[in-house]
Each structure stands twice: as C-alpha cells, then as structure tokens.
From TrEMBL:
Belongs to the AHA1 family. This is SRPBCC domain-containing protein. Residues 28-159 form the Activator of Hsp90 ATPase homologue 1/2-like C-terminal domain. It holds the Pfam family AHSA1.
Length: 165
C-alpha cells in the first residue's frame, strides 16, 4: 500500500465550496467504477458502523441514485443524487439532496463535480461541492469531513481488495 497518497480537504465558506482531492493506488477505470456502480458504492459509501444501501441507480445524464445510510439500529437517512453531466472515466456531476424514504427532497442541496485522472498507476479524484445555502454548509461541515474521510478510507481498502483479484 502506498502511504504517500495525497489527501486534501479545504473549505471556502465565502464561496460555499468544499474542495477534496484524494489519490488512490489503483487504475482510473477501477476507481471510476467504484464511484459509479451501485454494487461498489454500497461497499464503501458510508462511514462505519453505518452502511450504504442503494434502492436504485440509473447512471446516465438525468438519471438518479436513491440510497440510504443505515445505522446499526436500522435508522435510515435517505438521499437523492441526480446526474447532470457524465464524461465517461474522467468526469461526472450530480445534484445531491437529503430526502425522506419517499424521495421528497429536503432543499437546498449541493452540486458535486468529480474529476478523475491517472498518472503512473495512481488515480487522482478531485471533488468540488457547491452548497446552495451557507447555513446548509455550516450545518454539514461538523460531521461531513470526518464521515467523508472515513468513507474514502473504506474505498481505499475496497480498491486494494479489488486490485488483487
């Protein structure tokens, strides 16, 4: 395992933006799949001890992923992700909003932009998140950095396992 991989997490509160850069010791195609296929997203997309469960996912422009993060005692926190732009293997954008179990969205949401690049077998993922509301950004930041850092660690472990197959 390569311990020199970049991880950077920055917040620009004035612009209501979060900037995340993370490198993975895996090929770009595998990392892309991990971000865009429900069966892989469910294996890393929630910080332990929670787990992710995708109800459905249609990865195409205008398509959606509807999923929940589930606590060990069964409490569910649902979200809707709507894909707004896809350039295979290099970029996708989505609109993300929390919702109830019936997909009724809690507004405002956030716009996510994912960029993938590979150099010498290391894949870099740059994620920018624009929050429509400063209050939403402030409310989310407390737990978001910790939780998202944990999920990216889950992804690193999953990629190591998948790379050995």
């Amino acid at each position: 395992m390569n311990n020199d991989l970049l991880f950077d997490f920055n917040v620009d509160k004035t612009a209501k933006m979060v900037y995340i850069t993370r490198e993975f010791d895996a090929g770009q195609s595998l990392v892309w799949d991990a971000f865009t296929k429900a069966e892989l997203l469910d294996q890393w997309g929630a910080p332990a001890p929670m787990r992710a469960k995708t109800k459905y996912m249609n990865f195409e422009v205008g398509g959606r992923r509807f999923y929940a993060m589930i606590t060990p005692d069964g409490e569910e926190r649902w979200s809707v992700q709507e894909f707004t732009s896809i350039t295979p293997k290099t970029n996708f954008k989505m609109y993300n909003a929390f919702s109830d179990k019936d997909e009724n969205r809690e507004l405002p949401g956030s716009e996510w932009d994912h960029n993938f690049s590979e150099k010498n077998g290391i894949t870099r993922v740059d994620i920018t998140i624009y929050n429509e509301s400063f209050e939403r950004l402030e409310r989310l930041l407390e737990g978001f950095k910790i939780g998202f850092t944990m999920t990216l660690k889950n992804l690193e472990e999953l990629l190591a396992t998948l790379s050995q197959k």
